[in-house]
Amino acid sequence: MTLEFRDLEWALVASQQRSLRQAAERLNIRQSTLSRRLRNLEYLLGASLFERSTGGTRLTAAGELFIRSAQRLVDDANTTLTTLRTFGRGGNGMLKVGVQTSLATGNLRATIIEHQKRFPGVRIHAVDGSAQQLLFHLDSEAIDIAIGLEDGLRWNGHFQALWSERVVIAVAADHHFAAQDVVHWPQLAGERILIPAHGPGSDFQRLLLARLGYFAGDRILYQDVGLDRLLTFVGARIGLLIALEGATGARYPDVVYRELREGEGATRVNFRACWKKENANPALIQFLAIIRERFPDLSSS
């Protein structure tokens, strides 16, 4: 005979009811079944746990010691089971998200906020990087999902088209562009352009060179700092900053944003999400469900 988890639970109920008849009724079993199981438990432990009389049952000194230990074991087991069930539903654990855009505003920020509302027990770990860096992290399983610009995230695994964002230019509030509603790409010729070394920096460089050619090459100032420092540089008139619509939620003194246009239309870039098919992280599965809910995949891929 071996000790079973059920023995602990039945002994706890018997100690709480002080009557085997009432304990059996609560457990929905026969009193003789409960009595026999408790006798077997005492035999296994080599100690008497209950004093039985016509007035009911009460714990012996050994029984009180056993019940205290049994209560801790049952509580710990139930907590573990609850945690595992929640984890299986994506309700806790960690989700590692590779991002290539600002979270100051926009669709990615809104998606993460919605996920946290539904699954507050999940810890979000964000990893910034270029498209190449995010794909490397995804392949090495350092992140669960990569979200970035479609042109850069060329992934052989699972992916889904998401949203598009406008390309904007951040300028100092006293720059002459600030007086315009929009800025056209040719107007950037001769301006010093700040490009982040990480994130979507390489994509911005391609956009700039494709539209301005060699006029832009010697005017690019690569910066290995985050958005806050780049905007500080913009306000100090060190240069202009190409950014995405999601960055416009970051407000800095003496900095304004203007839409970049080509012809009559806004310049837009498309986003996609990439992940590994075999990744069974429940938190990822729930995150993907929210993405599909908010951004249905209408592509043929």
Characterize the largest beta sheet: strand count, sense, and whether it forms a barrel.
11 strands, mixed
Note the run of SSEs as H and E. Answer: HHHEEHEHEHEEEEHHEHEEEEH
Separation, N- and C-terminal Cα atoms? 58 Å
Low-confidence stretches: none
Beta-strand portion reads: 25-35%
Number of domains: 2
Distinct helical segment count: 10
Number of strands: 13
CATH architecture of the largest domain: 3-Layer(aba) Sandwich
CATH C-level name of the largest domain: Alpha Beta
- Summarize the amount of helix as a percent range: 40-55%
CATH fold title of the largest domain: D-Maltodextrin-Binding Protein, domain 2
Structural class: alpha/beta
Radius of gyration: 31 Å
Q: Indicate the overall shape.
A: rod-shaped
Mean of the pLDDT scores? 86
Could you walk me through the main structural features you see in this protein, from its secondary elements to its overall organization?
- There is one protein chain.
- The protein has helices at residues 5-17, 20-27, 31-45, 61-88, 107-118, 131-139, 201-212, 214-217, 227-235, 282-294; strands at residues 50-53, 56-59, 92-99, 121-128, 145-149, 158-172, 182-184, 193-196, 220-223, 240-244, 255-262, 265-266, 268-275.
- 31% of the residues are buried.
- Strand 11 (255-262) and strand 12 form a beta hairpin.
- By secondary structure, it is of the alpha/beta class.
- It has 2 domains: 5-88, Arc Repressor Mutant, subunit A (Orthogonal Bundle), CATH 1.10.10; 95-270, D-Maltodextrin-Binding Protein, domain 2 (3-Layer(aba) Sandwich), CATH 3.40.190.290.
- Helix content is 41%, strand content 26%.
- The longest helix has 28 residues, at 61-88.
- Strands 3, 4, 5, 6, 7, 8, 9, 10, 11, 12 and 13 form an 11-stranded mixed sheet that branches.
- The model has no long low-confidence stretch (mean pLDDT 86).
